């Protein structure tokens, strides 16, 4: 038989469970009604990743939820990771419409940059900054160089002179 204390305990347990929900905050709005959650992050993983599924019925996707949007994944009040939404997929199955959001933490930018980004030669420093640095969200840039272009590959300033040779 429910007593006042039992009802209060049940409500506080339900409230505690709600406070520990996994949430994704994008554009200042928090989303939390997931049908499936996958989070992979540990010390040996170079970039944490997450995948969240949401069953929707004719609802439109909020404008702030888009590929490349900044996202904060939290469990209750604890931030698990901050990063970007990498991919948004819609799947229409028998009687279901499933929205899948996939993202990675901010270390993913470093992982992505470890691969060759460009193969052009003779790019100026300004071109490198415009094509590689600024798209990563880096806006405070200070250039301290005599020249904005690198010397040609076989120029005297690029060759190492063995010790004792003039």
Distance between the termini: 97 Å
User: Number of DSSP strands?
Assistant: 7
Give the structural class. Answer: alpha+beta
Mean pLDDT: 75
What is the CA-atom radius of gyration, in angstroms?
25 Å
Oligomer: single chain
* Strand neighbour order, sheet with most strands: 2-1-5-6-7-4-3
Helix count, DSSP H or I runs of 4 or more residues:
3
What's the order of the H and E elements?
A: HEEEEEEEHH
- Strand residues, percent: 25-35%
Helix content bin: 10-25%
Q: Which residues sit in consecutive blocks of at least 5 with pLDDT less than 50?
A: 1-13, 158-162
How would the global form be characterised?
A: elongated
Give your account of this protein's structure.
By secondary structure, the chain is α+β, with helices and mostly antiparallel strands. It has three helices and seven strands, in the order αβββββββαα. The relative contact order is 0.12. It has helices at residues 4-19, 108-113, 125-133; strands at 22-26, 29-31, 36-40, 49-55, 70-75, 78-93, 96-105. β1 (22-26) and β2 (29-31) form a beta hairpin.
Helices and strands in order:
Blueprint: H1 4-19, E1 22-26, E2 29-31, E3 36-40, E4 49-55, E5 70-75, E6 78-93, E7 96-105, H2 108-113, H3 125-133
Antiparallel strand pairs: 1-2, 1-5, 3-4, 4-7, 5-6, 6-7
């Amino acid at each position: 038989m429910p007593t006042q204390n039992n009802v209060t305990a049940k409500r506080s347990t339900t409230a505690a469970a709600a406070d520990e929900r996994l949430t994704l905050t994008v554009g200042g709005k928090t989303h939390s009604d997931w049908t499936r959650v996958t989070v992979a992050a540990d010390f040996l993983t170079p970039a944490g990743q997450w995948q969240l599924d949401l069953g929707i019925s004719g609802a439109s996707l909020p404008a702030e939820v888009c590929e490349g949007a900044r996202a904060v994944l939290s469990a209750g009040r604890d931030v698990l990771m901050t990063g970007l939404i990498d991919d948004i997929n819609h799947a229409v199955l028998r009687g279901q419409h499933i929205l899948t959001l996939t993202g990675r933490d901010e270390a993913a930018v470093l992982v992505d940059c470890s691969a060759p980004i460009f193969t052009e030669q003779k790019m100026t420093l300004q071109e490198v900054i415009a094509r590689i640095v600024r798209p990563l969200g880096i806006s405070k840039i200070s250039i301290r160089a005599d020249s904005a272009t690198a010397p040609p590959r076989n120029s005297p300033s690029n060759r190492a002179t063995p010790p004792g040779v003039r």
